[in-house]
Amino acid sequence: MKKIKSMKQVTITATLTFVLTLLISVGAMAQVQIVTSVPDFAAIAREIGGDRVEVISLAKGYQNPHFVDAKPIFVTKLNQADMMVYNGLELEIGWLPILITGARNSDILGGNAIGHYDVSTSIKNRLEVPIGPVDRSMGDIHPGGNPHYMLDPRNGAPVARGIAARLIQIDPENAQFYEENFNNFISTLKLKISEWNTELAPFKGTEVVTYHKLWAYFLDWAGFKQAGTIEPKPGIPPTPSHVANLIKRMEALDVNLIVAANYYPQKTPQIIAQKTGATFLVLPAMVEGNEGINSYFELFDAIVGEITSALKQQTGSISKSMSQDKG
Ligand SMILES: [Zn+2]
What we know:
Blueprint: H1 2-28, E1 32-36, H2 39-49, E2 53-57, H3 72-79, E3 83-86, H4 96-103, E4 116-118, H5 156-170, H6 175-200, E5 207-210, H7 216-222, E6 225-229, H8 240-253, E7 257-261, H9 267-276, E8 279-283, H10 296-326
Parallel strand pairs: 1-2, 1-3, 3-4, 5-6, 5-7, 7-8
Helix pairs in contact: 2-5, 2-6, 3-4, 5-6, 6-10, 8-9
Bound molecules: zinc ion.
Zinc ion binds near residues 66, 147, 148 and 234.
């Protein structure tokens, strides 16, 4: 009995020491608190910041980033943040500005604060920047251009650079750590982009219909063409006449692929796919958009993988039916 008791005491002492060490190390390492609007930025911030940062994303990867519930807990998170990272180009205009103002945190408030990072300021090649004035009749058109630039993987680089530069300013003691992580991120990204390019190369010029103008940057990078959108205008739900015209156009252009982010309604694209024989792909559009997609690299692994395997299957079935015709 005595022996057992002393063993127990040893265990308790060991556990206490462990807990104390843990508490001390957590206390000593004041992590930089980063809040991002969407999970893509959170994933990149984690790559750069490692264990020196604590990152949360307000929107989930399976949510439409145009429409997010502004929960009161978000104000608390923003109040404690050292850095706020968001997309800009009005992507989050319906829900984020009110939260940032409500947080009353001078570190992230206003364009001049070091912890206020509007990522769109780092993006050079913006698509669909409207010429002339913008009004409501044009749908959800943003004066600064199409806001969905994160679906071009090349834009991962300026985002990582922007986050690293700010982390170095906020937490200069760990500058070297952030710089190393940044360099690692960039070399992995370069490697992955060339892999994805190789996978996509045989399908350049493919005409694609998308639900929303969400894939403009992706199609531009992949060398694909936007044959049309199921929404008649950005943010406006499909009408029967628009769908009828789109089907005609798809038949004329021989469009065989429809893609939609997994947070959009699937019924209309399914009907269009049935009528035209096109393949309809429901794709994750952000990190954490599906289970198993936890990094910016895994996001494009999934998107490129699903698109190329669908297109390979189509080519396979076309050559099969051609050889059957011959026979
Ligand atoms: Zn949009």
